[in-house]
Amino acid sequence: MSQVQILEPFIGGEFVRSKTSAYMDIYDPSTGDVIAKTPCCTKDEVENAVMAAKAAYPAWSDTPPHRRAQLFFNLRNLIEEHLDELTQCVCRENGKVRSEAQGDVLKAKEMTEIACGIPSLLLGESLMDTSSGYDTTLYRVPIGVFAGIAPWNFPAMIPMGWMAPLGVACGNTYVLKAASSTPMTSLKIAALYREAGFPKGVVNVVTCSRNESEMLLEHPDIRGVTFVGSTATGRHIYAKAAAAGKRVQALCEAKNHALVLKDAPITRTAAGIINAAFGCAGERCMALPVVVAEEEIADRLVEELVRMCRNRTVGPAYDKKSDLGPLVSEEHRKSVIDWIEKGIASNARLVLDGRGCRVEGYENGFYLGHTIFDHVTPEMAIGNCEVFGPVLCVKRVKDFEEGLSVMNSNPFANGSVIFTQNGYYAREFVKRTDGGMVGVNVGIPVPVGIFPFSGHKMSFFGDLHCHGKDAVRFFTESKTVTARWFDEKEIHSDKVTTWDN
Length: 501
Hints:
By secondary structure, this protein is an alpha/beta fold. It folds into two domains: 5-252 and 459-481, 3-Layer(aba) Sandwich (Aldehyde Dehydrogenase, Chain A, domain 1), CATH 3.40.605; 257-440, 3-Layer(aba) Sandwich (Aldehyde Dehydrogenase, Chain A, domain 2). The protein has 16 helices and 23 strands. The protein has helices spanning 43-61, 65-81, 83-94, 98-115, 118-121, 157-169, 184-196, 210-213, 231-243, 266-278, 295-310, 330-345, 400-408, 423-432, 468-474, 488-491; strands at 5-6, 10-11, 14-15, 23-28, 33-39, 125-131, 134-142, 145-149, 173-177, 203-206, 222-228, 247-251, 257-260, 290-294, 349-352, 371-374, 391-397, 412-413, 415-419, 437-440, 456-457, 460-462, 476-484. The strands form six sheets. A seven-stranded mixed sheet has the order 15-16-17-14-13-19-20, with helices on both faces. A six-stranded mixed sheet has the order 10-9-8-11-12-22, sandwiched between helices. The chain has a three-stranded mixed sheet with strand order 1-5-4, with helices on one face. The mean pLDDT is 96.
């Protein structure tokens, strides 16, 4: 066991030793060892982070967009330079296998690259002669201090991709409440912000419990909040922050479904499902935990899914041979096992059981093998609630219409997928599905960062989504200016003119 690292919050451009006596353990999920301790920052320390962001805002918001963009170019290069280090950090604190961990960091880099284009994204609109002699221009301007409350499942992509880059690029300053179980990557990237030349206080990172972070929802100097996590918490944050007059993006739970029609190629479809269902150990809101299969091909599909899973290797995150890494914590592992047992109790057919998974040499790691349920019916909770683990459910239907109905009856609508070679059904699916991000023969239909991450129904609360132009609108407000100029004769004339309609 390596030496346990004591982490420090990043406030006002510096790492500062917390005055708290309460520290939270950070585990290496592959070994079960405690690798670091992070402070439960006091309310005063969270307040200090907000004040640092507030103090930095006037000068940062006045910094020309092209200058802000240059700093993001610097940051982008530093992320690439430290890619291996950041990837290893994600592996160690989260448990993603190496390829997944690298993808996590690369998505943060992608959003940083989009922030490099902020001068173009901030372009407003104008019209000359909106009335005779009058011109109108719309500007997009920053608002103030924003807060992000990040989850544990993507330590790089969500806090340092979805949250901070575009908010800061738009001219705002940021206070990030990193996930207490996976804060190390965010703190490392915060250090890269400093190295890239960002002014002190523009980006601040704290770790704390819900009690301390609650103050961000009502703090008078916080103008908006982005949250990613459970639906129950998201609804609370949306209601409380919105009641305090703040902008809110609350990205919440999901139970994404894939409709597999009888004309879909079985092997290729099964491979897409395996990647989507079991990648990142199922610990992502765009996982694919439910397959809705036409009865005619359901047996063959299930057989192929089981065969592929049995050929995959469960192992530690940093072993390149591992296809499926551990879950993030022992507590979460027990939660997923509880869901498996609920599925068994509801008479879903367990065709592949991952509960007995053991990894030689890593017996204390938080491992759970691939698990597949067949004959899951609409009333079973295992097929309707977010499990957030390597558990796949198969629901059987007679045709496209029944399948679409089963999918749309779910209260969540982050994403939805169809596997088919039939263009008509694919088009009908795209048109009629409730899913906000839709895949046609694509298991994980997460768009690139220039498009919004657009969950629907109980998967999202707010008006403007993460990513792209939606994010720019969320982090700015419009200022519309109407101007008129007079020539010398008009200035000295006694004749008064009014708006010419």
